[in-house]
Structure formats: structure tokens, C-alpha cells
Amino acid sequence: MQRSKNTYYLLASSAALGLVLAGCGGGADGTATDAGDDDGGTAAAGGGEEVTLSVATFNEFGYEELLEEYEAANPGVTVEHVKADTADNARAALRNSLGANSGAADIEAMEVDWVTEFKQYPDKFADLNDPELEGRWLDWKTEAVTLEDGTLMGYGTDIGPEAVCYRADLFEEAGLPSDRDEVAELLGETWEDYFAVGEEFVASSDAAWYDSAGALWQGMINQVDYAYEDENDEIIALENPEVRALYDQVLSASVDDELSAGLGQWSADWASAFQGDEFATMLCPGWMLGVIEGNAAGVEGWDVANVFPGGGGNWGGSYLTVPAQGENVEEAKKLAA
Predict the structure, then answer these.
(1) Which of 1, 12, 46, 179 has CB atoms 3.0–4.6 Å from 160's, for a disulfide?
(2) What angle do CA 146, 148, 151 make, to 5 degrees?
(3) Full 3-state SS string of 152-190
(4) Which residues pair with 51 in a beta bridge?
(5) Is 105 exposed, middle or buried (CB count within 10 Å of its CB: 0-12, 13-18, 19+)?
(6) Domains of the chain by range and CATH?
(7) What is the pLDDT of residues 158-176, one digit of tens each?
């Protein structure tokens, strides 16, 4: 969702070079109050004035009904939901609006991989600290968006504990067990186990074992506590033996053993591949279930096994932030809460 202790990667740092920010935006020091007031009273500013709040998300956050509930509970508040088609487009839009100090939504969703980039501009976000909300999130989820001065940059929306999704029908055709529990046992505890089953599978099937070498790398590298930087924030990517070993393992499995479908995750080809029999497994954080459901509409056979090679992992998770440039920062903080 983001994702272990990695600082998410050098990509985030290089992307930040494209963000040429204008002068400091005005911040907000007031603390947020919980959106779910017991009396259901109005959240409208100025004692009953009409307030319109914009919420920018990407992909599928599932907020439609929640936003309607908020409007019903808070007369005078209208919520406009702006949904980007991809996370990359949402990230670019946020970067541009922060750089121009204009155009950001009142609430902006932020994927965990963007955090390193946007933490460099703390004055662009309202502080979301609120004593009433302490303990709502896992400690590590909050720590990832807590700045050195204690400012809380975002409210966590989800995390991404990993499993393995698989095509039960393709497993059966290849002579492998397809029951969830049996598949979990079959895939084993290590990546070596996972790749070994993959070699057995491709020997009896025209489908690839997994969708994307890049996606596989994401899951594997997230299990390394210090992959690209050490505990002192020193870059170790080029000399880290764990990184090299995993890279060689993925490369060998994907190219030499031909286990990968060779798809770029999130590409159009990757999305359309769910409608065919192109691959049998993929790494599967909880939020990926909705992606599979959408891409594989009408396709029977997808299932999920409660297993993840290498000892478990987390991929992903997003946050809601409140840009400081907004005209209704306090109302936005209430809705975000």
C-alpha cells in the first residue's frame, strides 16, 4: 500500500526534482474534530453558510456512499468527488497544484509511494494532529507521515497485507491443487518454493506463472528492512547484497525460466490480460482484489490463498491529506477525519 521500512525508493527523490514550488502557503493550526459528531450538527462554516468541499482520489477508494452519508449528516456541506483514472495522473496533478499554490482539492489522496517526495514540502499541508484521533491507526502507518516537527501530514485510509491470488481453473488444468488451503501449502514459505511450483506449472500450461517481474520485485524488496538506505539514511542500494540477490533471483525466474508474462503492471496490456489465460498467479495485497474483480469481470476461476513467500509483507496503503492552500481547511479536516 505503501511497505516495510523502505523510504520508497530513489524514484521518489528523482520525481521530486520536477516539483518547483512557489512561496510558502498558509498553514492551519487548528485541530480537527471528528466528523461523526453525536448530534449530527452542521459542519458548515460561519454558522450555516454553504460549503463545498472537493475530494480528489484515484482508482477506486469506494467513498461514494460515505460521502453521501457525510452530506446527509452535515447540512450545508456539498462534497464534490474528483477521481483520477490512475495514481500516476493523480500524483502529477497534486505536484502541479502544489507547485502553483493553486488548484488542489480540499482533500487530496496520497499513495504511500509519494510520501517521500511530498514530505519535503511540509508547509503545503495542514497539520492533522488531533488528540481525539490518537490510536486510530497502526503506529507505523502514522509514523510514515509524521514530520520531524511532529506535524501529521495525512490520515491513513488502508494498508496492504499481502497474499497470492491465483487462477484455480488454470491450476487444475496443470494438475495442481486448486483449493485455497492446499494452494497455500503448495506455494510454501520461501520464494524458492514459489518459483519451483512455477516451473512445474509452466511445464504443463501455456500460461505464464506470474504477471509481472516488476510487480514480483515490489513484493520481494518490500520484505527487506533496509533495501536502498540504511538506518542512518545513507544510500546503500548499489552495494546491498540483499538487493543484488533478489534482483538476480527475479531475473533468473522471469527470463531464464520464463515464468513471467512480461507485462508492465498497470499498463493497458496488463489490464486486458485478465480477460485471457495469460498468467496463473500474482502478488495480491488486500486492495488488489477490487482491481482483479474489475479487470477480470466475467472470468471465472480467480481465488486468493492465505500465503506469501518470504514471511509476509505489506504493499500499499494511502492517506488523505489537506492542502494548506484551500479556502475551507478546517471543514476539510473534519471530512478527512
Answers:
(1) 1
(2) 45
(3) ECCEECCCCEEEEEEEHHHHHHCCCCCCHHHHHHHHCCC
(4) 77
(5) buried
(6) 10-159+317-336 (3.40.190.10), 162-305 (3.40.190.10)
(7) 999 999 999 999 999 999 9
